[in-house]
Amino acid sequence: MDSNETSLPDVDVWMIHADLNQIPSYELPAGYSFRFYCDGDLEKWVKIQNAADELFTATAETFKQSLKGPADYLAHRIMFLVNQKGEDIGTITAWETEKLTGNLLGQVHWVAIVPEAQGQGLAKPMMTAVCRKLLELGHSKAFLSTNTRRIPALNLYLGMGFKPFKVGANEAEAWETVRPLLKVNPFG
């Protein structure tokens, strides 16, 4: 983690996209593809999450607690990003929950790309794909959670049209602290 990031506020925030029909469209570069979760992918998912995120350590238990469901349910929601060599280098999930509003909403969940593949224009196509999947599953809105120390993630989500949701005093202060590092005004 960059020393700049450790000085940023450590605040979890919620973001929402009010109309997934308005999501920007980005395609994967040539040679990359997506595949869906298959039985036996748990270790690959954990490995990608841990390589990508220094702020959190994922385990098999993390997966089992946060991505509950039968294998056929998971197989239509958890996506893997595959490079030109056939290696799984990223993962993103089209989830759903009532946790945020009390109504069933789509949730962009567990977004991760291994460090050596970051900065190559892959996150935007992943977001496009997961939001298209949520639309296909009947969701017109989606939310996600992240942390104010994750500036690249905040920039990605803001650029895709996600906005801060239910901002209390703690979150508002955190957003104001990170605003100079953001490419898009979170409240604009």
Strand-pairing-aware structural class:
alpha+beta
Major sheet: 7 strands, mixed
CATH topology: Aminopeptidase
Let me know the CATH homologous superfamily: Gcn5-related N-acetyltransferase (GNAT)
| Spatial gap, N to C terminus | 29 Å
Shape: globular
Low-confidence stretches: none
DSSP strand (E) fraction? 15-25%
The average pLDDT is 93
Work out the helicity level.
Answer: 25-40%
Lay out the secondary structure:
Blueprint: H1 3-6, E1 12-17, E2 33-36, H2 42-52, H3 60-66, H4 71-74, E3 78-82, E4 88-97, E5 105-113, H5 123-136, E6 142-147, H6 151-159, E7 163-165, H7 169-178
Parallel strand pairs: 5-6
Antiparallel strand pairs: 1-6, 1-7, 2-3, 3-4, 4-5
How would you describe this protein?
It is a single chain. The protein is of the alpha+beta class and 188 residues long. The protein has a single domain (3-181), classed as Gcn5-related N-acetyltransferase (GNAT) (Aminopeptidase), CATH 3.40.630. Helices cover 31% and strands 23% of the residues. It has seven helices and seven strands, in the order H-E-E-H-H-H-E-E-E-H-E-H-E-H. Strands 2-3-4-5-6-1-7 form a seven-stranded mixed beta sheet. The longest helix is centred in the last third of the chain and has 14 residues, at 123-136. 27% of the residues are buried. The mean pLDDT is 93.
